[in-house]
Amino acid sequence: MGKSYERIDGRLRSFIEAQPIFFTATAPLAGDGHVNLSPKGRAGTLAVLDELTLAYLDFGGSHAETIAHLRENGRITLMWCAFTGPPTVVRVHGRGEPVFRDDPRFGELLGHFAPEADGSGLRAIVLVRAERISDSCGFAVPYLEYREDRSLLRDYFDRKTDEEFAEYCARKEYVGASVDGLPGLPLPLPPRP
Description:
The protein is of the alpha+beta class. It is 20% helix and 32% strand. It has a single domain (3-171), classed as Electron Transport, Fmn-binding Protein, Chain A (Pnp Oxidase, Chain A), CATH 2.30.110. The protein has helices at 10-18, 65-72, 106-110, 152-158, 162-171, and strands at 3-5, 22-26, 36-40, 46-50, 53-59, 75-81, 88-100, 122-137.
């Protein structure tokens, strides 16, 4: 039986921090807009800042749908599933905002992550303030074994200078604007502080 919580307590925090993958879901306000669901992983790129606030590192990729939706309306859901151990699903519904590289808060927020979590291709930090925290059974979630993080994205962006990464972002069709035409990543990409 699912339960709601007023805060991310020690047990929920331990569960969240132990999962090697989580998912983000966002949507535009338009009824015919595209809902976005993204997997997130890479060790150390998620931080529980306090009992109601989380943040994760947002790296370059083929789209910027989450950023575009957050800029338009701020709605976001984060979800973790237990693929080992007791069957559990935890969701945090909240308000999110992308903190871009030229934001004065960027450096301070980056300090909440392990230095090895930072890397080439970092374009923003997504800050999430929880409004509803809940869990439910994960009876239908399969058992899966985690082997290791994939290094492909890190390796790819490590071969680029920051200027080349900015050019990469500018060339991608759905980075400066979403598939629905909403403003995405501000371009030109500001340099790293």
